[in-house]
TrEMBL record:
It comes from the Bacteria. It comes from Chitinophaga chungangae. InterPro entries: Nuc_phospho_transferase, Thymidine/pyrmidine_PPase. The keyword Ion transport does not apply. Keywords: Glycosyltransferase, Transferase. This is Thymidine phosphorylase.
Length: 378
């Protein structure tokens, strides 16, 4: 593992080198084979807090009549698979026979990279996390593609979240260049690919945390989403429509709700558990942070990620959910001293630590920063 990371960090690698590694990672475990006539789609991301695209985009693809097979890894602090794993009995590690059966039943299966599927990629990703190798773009491309090759995808859209800590480069220019490279290599692998530039420096929606992600889904499906969450959902819908090769069409909340709960129940999860989690997350948000002074609100998402992950790592369970926050102010909105900028929850043993870290992550600027605009890269 160390030799791979060192080589990709220190040397110029070709598209063929990256594809070769992606194929080797895919071949390290079982592969899912479907009839070539079935077009399997997915919209993964390059990682980063503040977005729900890996949870919402499959629902929008289903809304367009597509089939989705999503093989993923846990997020930091919350990714699609570890968020869904919060739901009681939701099976994130099905065998291949269940995957085939579930896809035929429901057109959507979301499962975990493990010892059966892309095990070498999972080992490499864990090594990258421990050795400052997550943000090496060439390795990120190989890792993302390995999971898509392993499940036989025909179409892919990639949410490239651009930030200083982004996996596709620290600048917009680098992120665009690596997005184009991802598309090229995916095409070499026989997968039709597009990438989408989104701003990873700012929260694309207000709900940050594993339970908070489910709360956001609940608001969206109940048609009670606030403006920022609604706007984020529309961007996810736009990405899905682009992957589908159609113009952007309005989405149906009723169909999204059906798609979400059909997947939960197909994979063994309980709707009552989802509702209990949402209730308890709402109940847990009894703490608030207020603006310390006037200015344009800015929150450091890397600091937020580290604050949540730091407490998750001290908690029990495979995918623990000890804390989370909901933003009450939008990035770059003007706030006045005393305005509530977020609510949060946290287990008692780390409450003061979490509050202090959240407060340190917030700044108040004299001028708003320029947002990175959504852009499609082909």
């Amino acid at each position: 593992m160390g030799a791979i990371v060192t080589h990709f960090r220190q040397n110029e690698v070709t598209d063929d080198d990256i594809l070769h590694l992606a194929v080797r990672l895919a071949d390290s475990g079982e592969k899912i084979l479907f009839d070539k006539s079935i077009e399997l789609c997915d919209i993964p991301s390059t990682g980063g807090p503040g977005s729900l695209s890996t949870i919402l985009c499959p629902l929008f693809l289903l809304n367009l009549g597509k089939s989705v097979l999503k093989l993923g890894v846990p997020g930091r602090p919350a990714g699609g698979i570890d968020v869904l794993a919060q739901i009681e009995d939701y099976n994130i590690e099905p065998d291949s026979s269940k995957i085939h059966m579930w896809l035929e039943e429901n057109n959507y299966v979301h499962f975990l990279a493990n010892n059966n599927f892309t095990p070498l990629d999972a080992l490499l990703f864990n090594f990258r996390k421990k050795n400052n190798g997550v943000s090496i773009p060439s390795l990120a491309i190989a890792s993302l593609l390995s999971k898509k090759i392993a499940v036989g995808l025909s179409h892919i859209g990639l949410d490239v979240r651009v930030s200083e800590h982004g996996n596709f480069g620290h600048t917009l220019e680098l992120a665009k260049s690596n997005a184009k490279r991802f598309n090229r290599i995916a095409n070499l692998a026989g997968i039709k690919a597009k990438s989408f530039i989104t701003d990873g420096r700012v929260a694309q929606q207000p709900y940050i945390g594993r339970g908070e992600a489910l709360l956001a889904v609940s608001h969206l499906l109940d048609d009670t989403a606030d403006d920022l969450l609604q706007s984020h959902a529309e961007v996810c819908n736009q990405m899905a429509c682009s992957v589908n090769g159609t113009i952007t069409v309005p989405f149906s909340v009723k169909l999204l709700s059906h798609a979400f709960f059909a997947n939960v129940e197909t994979q063994g999860g309980k709707k009552d558990s989802f509702e209990d989690i949402v209730f308890n997350i709402k109940k847990g948000h009894q703490y608030y942070i207020s603006a310390k002074k006037n200015g344009y609100f800015n929150i450091d998402l890397l600091a937020i990620r580290d604050a949540i992950v730091g407490i998750q790592q001290k908690a029990d369970g495979r995918f623990p959910d000890p804390c989370g926050l909901v933003l009450k102010a939008k990035n770059d909105s003007y706030v006045q001293k005393g305005d509530i900028i977020c609510s949060f929850r946290c287990i008692e043993s780390h409450l003061h630590e979490f509050r202090a870290n959240l407060e340190r992550a917030v700044s108040y600027l004299a001028e708003p920063i320029d947002n990175i605009k959504f852009e499609e890269i082909v």
